[in-house]
Structure formats: structure tokens, C-alpha cells
Amino acid sequence: MTLIFTFIQKAIGQGIAILFGATGEIITEKSGNLNLGVPGIMYMGGIAGLMGAFFYENSTENPIPIVGMIIAIICCLLASALGGLLYSFLTITLRVNQNVVGLSLTTFGTGFGNFFGGSISKLAGGVGQISVMTTASAFQAKIPGLSKIPVIGDLLFSYGFLTYIAIIISLCATFFITKTRAGLNLRAVGEDPATADAAGINVSKYKYIATVVGTSIAGLGGLYFVMEYLGGTWSNNGFGDRGWLAVALVILALWNPTNAIWGSLVFGGLYILYIYMPGLTRATQELCKMLPYVVTIIVLIITSRRNKPENQSPGSLGNAYFREER
Amino acid sequence: MGEVNAIELKGVTKRFGEVVANDNINMTLRKGEILSILGENGSGKTTLMNMLSGIYFPDEGQIFVNGEQVTIRSPKDAFSLGIGMIHQHFKLINILTAAENIILGLEGAPILKMDEVRKQVNDLTERYGFDLNPDQKIYDMSVSEKQTVEIMKVLYRGAEILILDEPTAVLTPQETEKLFAVLRNMRAAGKSIIIITHKLNEVLEISDRVAVLRKGTYVDTVETKDATVDSLTEMMVGEKVTLDIERTEPVSPKKRIEVRGVTVKNTEGVTVLKDASFTANSNEILGIAGIAGSGQKELLESIAGLQVMEHGEVLYFSPEGVTEKLSEKKPEEIRSLGVTLSFVPEDRLGMGLVGSMDLTDNMMLRSYKEGKSVFADRKQPRDLAEEIVEKLEVVTPGVDTPVSRLSGGNVQKILVGREIASQPNVLMVAYPVRGLDINSSYTIYNLLNEQKNKGVAVICVGEDLDVLLELCDKIMVLSAGEVVGIEDARTTTKEKLGLMMTGGHKGGKKHE
User: Fold this and answer.
1) Chain-chain contact of A198 with B75 (C-beta, under 8 angstroms)
2) pTM, rounded to two decimals
3) Chain B residues within 8 angstroms (CB to CB) of chain A
4) Which site among B47, B50, B92, B93 would you substitute to test the A interface, given the most A Cβ atoms closer than 10 Å to its Cβ?
5) Nearest chain A Cα distance for residue B104, angstroms
6) Residue-wise over B75-101: b if at least 16 C-beta within 10 A, else e?
7) Most exposed: A63, A234, B153, B371, by fewest CB within 10 Å?
8) Which of the four CATH numbers 1.10.10.10, 3.60.15.10, 3.40.50.620, 3.40.50.300 does domain B7-237 have?
């Protein structure tokens, strides 16, 4: 019994970073921008938050956890928004191929994270491991009282605040996309920008804002991983391929952020399943790690057979928009 | 009566480069009437209306709306003046519902109140007698339902003047009746309506007055009750214009292509070509006349093997006396028999040429499979490109220039020139002079005549009846996918062809 609880707890811990990434990417893709730079953006968000906290903690005698936390969040949002802005400028204004820009951004972001991660580890001296314990404690703080309830407390209330924020953001994103005027316009832009343009919607503005907001949310996933999951430390390439899982989760969730919530739990669970499966060899472990991708492919096949257009990717996903020259 | 007109145009002129699309047009739309604008293809109907809806800006002239002079610079300006245009190509988002499409892009409360919208939409549908479920997704809708959404979009934004661009072109007769009932309701509610069409029977049925355009100029406006099919046709096609295209008598024509009962349905399941049968002879130019979209493209593509036919067959009689069944062959095999097609679509580049590739590469599109070597032969295509440039006087910096950089006329010369260079036995061209100036047009006419004299069976789809009358030996008329008849180009009249094209000669038949 306790093993299952631990498994679910760990799965949620794994899933939240992916959930942030997927929610951000869904908002971006709804505008017709396929941002494959999300894995890189998550590295950038993570390292920027860590650096902010590190320099804050090093500059004062008695760092206050909450101040470190705010600085970390601001730095994370700034870095990931800048990444999104760069992507937007290249793909929307200069109309560079979205896949090329996205993949380069991922390569760049990963390098950016590892470079600065290594650098500050060196600054921190010692064995090359940095730690921002104070700030991380603010991220890891559990809900007082509620987390003490047996079983339920462990299962539902034993996480840092970012976990709950991830879920709230996902729910809000669904509400925004389906129930607001701006959300309706956003869907129109991603589906058919020419029609949206004719209806008087500013296509470029929507694409820019959706992309930058999307990357900012995705960046929080990186921060969550560094602060809450790793407890304020850095290890190069430690984030692994979770960024790609976020991109896959967008498809699994059928471009609906609410679906991404349970989807992230499934992915998180599948991602660590190999630890809890008895009798796996090193080789079969690797096979087990492929499960999230296998599930994505199966979902893709099923949904394409059901063939419901609103569950498919946005109509003009991946295309730059040219207003027709008359 | 002293009442102000809904719209008044005074001396409106619009030019595209050298082409005058609208020349000094004076026209009025009275309040609460249905005005038909009638004219052949290319007579400038749509251009004129696009100036009212803010897509084009007039070069000269004034526009008055409700008695006041206005400047319409964008579709938004048109909307604020209460002018709404329903285009032939719908601008709708497939995955959204009708109601969502209707409010798309409008200002309002940040959080959508779909219940309210639904109620407003239902009110409108009730008032004008539409048939529309506001929660239906566009992808689940028929063409006529989509059109309803487009009209609702305009009404929801409070338009008082509605312009419909060929609204019946995509509708079945029953749906047309429904639309007309709605239009009458709107007229009763005081809306002013302009309907662009070239179907005479519909003009007579729905409108109060008819304005006729011919080749960019305004002919006249008449009361519908004083008009007849004959009088309207006469206004529409006008006097015959002499063009002096050299035409030789066909020398011993022989049957080359025989089309038997070909029927084609489009992707939506609508029959676009109905039981078409005819023959095309060598040493002759067969003209195909008809309103745009009457099945011309499908007919040519059926012969070239690019269309899936419902039934019917196409036979080819080679000069050597062998009979081949083209309808059972692949496009590639048909080409190798010497049956070629050059289709000039509206955007000119869409078919047959690749815009970003240079002249030589475009020649290679036809020849890259020749020869045994794994490397394609570039020398011959290059020579051919140079030859075409020289012979047809193509204006280009060189054969290494991407085709998309050339002007329209030059692109067309290359397209037609390449097809001719393959020494076809059957040459099919569609709209070969579309958008060309006079001199380039004559170059193309001469090319076609040259081919005819060489013994090629030429099939030419055209828009301009004057040209067809002087260029062709026979003219076949298509109307709504049916072959109406084949006329001798030397003896027939423009009025007769015009009547056949618009289906005016069988007015009642199509509607009941």
C-alpha cells in the first residue's frame, strides 16, 4: 500500500515539470506556433531562477527564503519570456521556419543551462556542487496542517506551492481558451490566420503574446525541477528529456490543458515506473522508459481515427502567416 | 420620390496596371431594393463590389452612402457604414460553431456569454427565415449552411446594405429558392441588397432592377419588369468586336479525340460535368465557351487523365490510325501519346510551372525522365528555354531567372511554349491569354493557329467570346456542366452563345 502511495507521490513530482511545459506549449500552439524550443526554454528558466537565488543568497548574510523565491521566479520568467520573444521575432516577424528555430532554441537552451550551471558551480567553489538551500526551502514548504493528515495529507498536500500553481494555471488556461473572447480569437488565429485577419484580429499580436506567455509558463517547469525536485541544486543535463515529454504531452492532452493534468500524472508515472517494477534488467529498464512515447503514439492513432477536427492540432500549426498581397 | 439612395457611385474607375477593370461607372442602389449586377466573366462586377467593401480603393470617382460622400479604405470602414459583403469563398473557422464564427473578432465583454449570442442569432434567423443551428460546427455544415453563417455574420454586425457575390453558384435549386425567400424577407425589413450573378433566370426572379456591366464599363440599369432574357443578353454581350485574328480553313480534319458521356463529381459529391460528349478534330481549333466553373477544367483534366470519372470514356485516334482508350491510361502515358494540357489558372503559376525554379528547370519538369544516365540532362532543356525566350519574345534577364520574377504574360508564353515544344498531337489550353496585353495575346493566337495548321487538334477554353468567335473553327458551349451545343464559329452569333452559356434558352427547366 505505502509503495503505491509513494509511487503516486513521485509520479506527481515527475509530472508537474512536464505539466508546466505542456500547458505553456498548448497556449503557444493554439496560436499556430509549434515551439519545439520548449525543452531548451525549460533549461533556461531553471538555470536563470537558480542563478538569481544563488547571487541573492551569496550577497547577504541572512537570506530570507521568501525573497529568494520571488527573485528566482522573476529571473525564471524573464529568461523564458526572452526565449519566447526570440522565437517569436524569428518566426513571426522574420518568418523563419518554426521547426528550425525551435530545435536550435532547444540546443541553445540546453547549452545555456549547462554552461551557467557549470559556471556558478565553479563560483560556489568546493566540489563543484552548488546549493541554494534557503530559497529551495521556500519552494519545498508544505502546506502546514493539511499535510499532517494521514494518507490524504501525504497524497494531496505534501507538495510545494508550484505544484498547485501548475494545476491552477492549467485550469485557467482551459477556461481562457474555451470561454473568453480572447481565447476564441486565439483559436481562430491558430486555425486559420487569414480568416482571423479578415475578421479584424491582429494575428501577429496574438501569436507574439501566446508564444511569450507559453514559454514563461514552460520556464516555471524548469524552475520547479531545480528548486523543488532537486532542492536547489544543479546537475548538468539533469533535466533529461522531460522537455520532449512536455511536447508529447500536448498531443496526448489533445491540446486541452485540463487533459494535460491527468496526462502529466500518467507520464510522470510511466517515467519512473522502471524503478518500481521488480526484476528489470538494465536493458528492460530502458524499454520501460519508452512507455510515455508509446502511449503518445497510441493516443495519436486513436484520435486520428476518431477524426474529430477540434481534437486535432490547430489547422495552421507550424506555418508562418503572410497576408496575401493584392 | 426624393428619397436618398443607399449607394451611389459617380465616375468610379479602377485600373490594375494597364488593364482598366472598371471605367467611369455610375450606378445607384435604392433603399430597400434588390439590385442585380449582371455581366460576363471579367466584366468587372466583383472589382466594383470590392471597392464598396473596402478591399480595393478606387482610382477615380466618388462613392455616396445614404447621400453622403464616403471614403472606404478597409473592410472595417465598410462595416461601419453598414455595408457587408458575402464573398464567394467563405471565410469561416471550421472547428468553431456557427455562433462563435459570427462573433469572431468583435469587441465585447472579455468573457463570452454564448447564451446571449445564441439568443441573438436565433432572433435573427427567425426574423429572416433562415435555417441555422448556432451550435453546429462549420465542418458539419453543407455549403448552403456555411453561406447562411456568412450572411448572419454580416447581419449580426448590423449591415443595412448587403452585397452577395454569386451566391447561387454553389447552391442547389432548392437551396437557391430558400436563399431568395430570405433575401425577400430582408428587403421587406428595409435592407438594400446587391446580388452579383450571371444567371439570367435568377435575375428576373429575384431583383427589382438590373444593372449591366460589359468589359469594365457600365451599360445601363433597367427595371426587371421591363426586361426579358433576350434584352438582357443583348446588353450583356454587346456588339460584336472585330479582332482580325487570321483564321485559315481547316485542311482535311480527322477525328482525334472522342469524348463519350463523361460525368465527373467534385469532392463534395456535386456533379460538375454531366454526360459530356463531343469530338475534336485535327487541323481545327475547338473553342469551349462557358461561364467560369461550368466544368471546363474537369473536362480538360478528364482528357489528360487527371480526373476521376464517374462514367464515360475518352478515345484517342492517333495520326497513324491506332485507337487508344485514354480513360484507362495514366496521365504519363497520355502525355507520351502527344496529348498535352496547359491550364492557366487565376494565379497563373498554380499549374504546370514552379515559381521558384528557373526557366531551364521548368523545362526539365517535362524531360527529366528522358535519357539513360542517372544525371539529368540540363543542356537540352536549356536550349529549349533559350529557344522559347527568343521565339516568343519572352522578356527575361536570362534562362536562369526564377519564373515567379517574370510578368504574367511572359510566364504564360513559357507555359504554352513548353507544351508546344513537345510537338503534341492534341493541344489543350485553358485561358491562354488570361490577363495578357493585346500584343502578347496575338502571339499566343498565332501560336495556336500555327499548331492547327500543322495538323494538331487544338482545344481552347476561353473567356472572351469575341476571341473564340474569330480564333476557333467550332465552339462548344458548356453550361452548368452540360454540353449545350456545338456551333460553327463562322456562322454563329455572340447573342446565341451568350444565351446558351447563361442557360437562358431553357429558363424554366433549371428551376423547377
Assistant:
1) yes
2) 0.78
3) 55-56, 75-76, 91-96, 100, 103-106, 108-112, 137, 139
4) B93
5) 6
6) beebbebbbbbbbeebbbbbbbbbbbb
7) B371
8) 3.40.50.300
